[in-house]
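Justification of resources, computational component.

The compute hours requested in this renewal are based largely on the per-chain cost of generating structure records like the one below. Each record pairs the submitted sequence with a full C-alpha coordinate output. That output is archived, and it is also reused by downstream analysis tasks.
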Amino acid sequence: MKAIYTAEALATGEGRDGRARTSDGKVDLELSIPKEMGGNGVGTNPEQLFAAGYAACFHSALRLVAGQEKADVSDSAVGARVSIGSLDNGGFGLAVELEVTLPNVDHDTAQKLTEKAHEVCPYSNATRGNIDVNLVVTDD
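The structure output for this chain reads:
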Protein backbone atom coordinates (compact mmCIF):
# COMPACT_ATOMS: atom_id res chain seq x y z
CA MET A 1 0.00 0.00 0.00
CA LYS A 2 1.21 3.50 -0.80
CA ALA A 3 0.18 5.70 2.14
CA ILE A 4 -1.73 8.87 1.28
CA TYR A 5 -2.19 10.01 4.88
CA THR A 6 -1.07 8.74 8.28
CA ALA A 7 -2.85 9.58 11.53
CA GLU A 8 -0.86 9.48 14.76
CA ALA A 9 -2.23 9.05 18.25
CA LEU A 10 -0.75 8.31 21.65
CA ALA A 11 -2.50 6.57 24.53
CA THR A 12 -1.18 7.27 28.03
CA GLY A 13 -2.22 6.44 31.57
CA GLU A 14 -3.63 2.99 32.12
CA GLY A 15 -4.85 2.09 28.63
CA ARG A 16 -8.62 2.10 28.75
CA ASP A 17 -8.41 4.33 31.84
CA GLY A 18 -6.17 7.05 30.50
CA ARG A 19 -5.99 9.64 27.73
CA ALA A 20 -5.74 9.49 23.98
CA ARG A 21 -4.38 12.38 21.94
CA THR A 22 -3.59 12.80 18.28
CA SER A 23 -0.26 14.32 17.28
CA ASP A 24 -2.01 17.41 15.90
CA GLY A 25 -4.05 17.89 19.10
CA LYS A 26 -7.43 17.79 17.31
CA VAL A 27 -8.44 14.81 19.42
CA ASP A 28 -7.55 14.86 23.10
CA LEU A 29 -9.85 12.94 25.36
CA GLU A 30 -10.27 11.04 28.55
CA LEU A 31 -10.71 7.30 28.23
CA SER A 32 -12.52 5.07 30.66
CA ILE A 33 -13.82 1.55 30.82
CA PRO A 34 -17.59 1.34 30.15
CA LYS A 35 -19.80 0.65 33.15
CA GLU A 36 -20.88 -2.60 31.46
CA MET A 37 -17.27 -3.77 31.72
CA GLY A 38 -16.80 -2.68 35.34
CA GLY A 39 -15.50 0.84 34.76
CA ASN A 40 -16.89 4.24 35.66
CA GLY A 41 -17.93 5.10 32.08
CA VAL A 42 -16.98 8.78 32.52
CA GLY A 43 -14.80 9.08 29.41
CA THR A 44 -15.09 7.62 25.96
CA ASN A 45 -13.75 4.21 25.02
CA PRO A 46 -11.99 2.62 22.04
CA GLU A 47 -15.17 0.94 20.79
CA GLN A 48 -16.97 4.30 20.57
CA LEU A 49 -14.05 5.78 18.67
CA PHE A 50 -13.95 2.80 16.31
CA ALA A 51 -17.74 3.05 15.76
CA ALA A 52 -17.50 6.76 14.92
CA GLY A 53 -14.57 6.22 12.57
CA TYR A 54 -16.13 3.23 10.81
CA ALA A 55 -19.50 4.99 10.37
CA ALA A 56 -17.85 8.08 8.87
CA CYS A 57 -15.52 6.10 6.62
CA PHE A 58 -18.29 3.79 5.39
CA HIS A 59 -20.56 6.76 4.71
CA SER A 60 -17.84 8.31 2.55
CA ALA A 61 -17.41 5.03 0.65
CA LEU A 62 -21.19 4.81 0.22
CA ARG A 63 -21.36 8.35 -1.17
CA LEU A 64 -18.50 7.54 -3.55
CA VAL A 65 -20.12 4.44 -5.04
CA ALA A 66 -23.55 6.10 -5.10
CA GLY A 67 -22.07 9.04 -7.00
CA GLN A 68 -20.60 6.66 -9.55
CA GLU A 69 -24.08 5.16 -10.02
CA LYS A 70 -25.76 8.60 -10.07
CA ALA A 71 -27.91 7.57 -7.09
CA ASP A 72 -29.51 10.17 -4.82
CA VAL A 73 -27.74 9.96 -1.46
CA SER A 74 -29.21 13.09 0.05
CA ASP A 75 -30.34 12.48 3.64
CA SER A 76 -28.29 9.27 3.79
CA ALA A 77 -26.79 8.08 7.06
CA VAL A 78 -24.64 5.28 8.41
CA GLY A 79 -24.75 4.14 12.02
CA ALA A 80 -22.20 1.75 13.53
CA ARG A 81 -22.54 -0.51 16.53
CA VAL A 82 -19.27 -1.99 17.79
CA SER A 83 -19.51 -4.78 20.33
CA ILE A 84 -16.67 -6.23 22.38
CA GLY A 85 -16.82 -9.66 23.92
CA SER A 86 -14.88 -12.70 25.09
CA LEU A 87 -13.50 -15.21 22.62
CA ASP A 88 -13.25 -18.95 23.23
CA ASN A 89 -9.44 -18.70 23.41
CA GLY A 90 -9.61 -16.33 26.40
CA GLY A 91 -8.96 -13.15 24.40
CA PHE A 92 -11.36 -10.46 23.32
CA GLY A 93 -12.94 -9.76 19.96
CA LEU A 94 -15.09 -7.22 18.18
CA ALA A 95 -18.20 -7.38 16.05
CA VAL A 96 -19.72 -4.58 13.99
CA GLU A 97 -23.18 -3.81 12.70
CA LEU A 98 -23.48 -1.05 10.11
CA GLU A 99 -26.96 0.38 9.62
CA VAL A 100 -27.32 2.17 6.29
CA THR A 101 -30.18 4.53 5.47
CA LEU A 102 -30.66 5.68 1.86
CA PRO A 103 -34.19 7.12 1.86
CA ASN A 104 -34.16 8.29 -1.77
CA VAL A 105 -33.43 4.97 -3.48
CA ASP A 106 -35.33 1.68 -3.51
CA HIS A 107 -34.29 -1.11 -1.14
CA ASP A 108 -32.58 -3.27 -3.78
CA THR A 109 -30.48 -0.34 -5.02
CA ALA A 110 -29.63 0.61 -1.44
CA GLN A 111 -28.52 -2.98 -0.74
CA LYS A 112 -26.31 -3.07 -3.86
CA LEU A 113 -24.74 0.28 -3.04
CA THR A 114 -24.09 -0.85 0.52
CA GLU A 115 -22.38 -4.02 -0.67
CA LYS A 116 -20.24 -2.02 -3.13
CA ALA A 117 -19.30 0.42 -0.36
CA HIS A 118 -18.26 -2.56 1.79
CA GLU A 119 -15.75 -3.52 -0.91
CA VAL A 120 -14.33 0.04 -1.12
CA CYS A 121 -14.28 1.20 2.52
CA PRO A 122 -10.81 1.01 4.12
CA TYR A 123 -12.30 -0.04 7.47
CA SER A 124 -14.22 -2.85 5.78
CA ASN A 125 -11.08 -3.97 3.99
CA ALA A 126 -9.12 -3.89 7.25
CA THR A 127 -11.71 -5.91 9.17
CA ARG A 128 -12.69 -8.41 6.45
CA GLY A 129 -11.93 -11.93 7.63
CA ASN A 130 -11.01 -10.67 11.10
CA ILE A 131 -14.30 -9.66 12.68
CA ASP A 132 -17.97 -10.12 11.88
CA VAL A 133 -19.46 -7.13 10.06
CA ASN A 134 -23.22 -7.22 9.56
CA LEU A 135 -24.70 -4.83 6.98
CA VAL A 136 -28.28 -3.71 7.62
CA VAL A 137 -30.13 -1.55 5.07
CA THR A 138 -33.12 0.24 6.55
CA ASP A 139 -36.10 1.57 4.64
CA ASP A 140 -36.42 4.80 6.64
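Residues 46-68 form the longest helix (23 residues). The chain has a mean pLDDT of 96.
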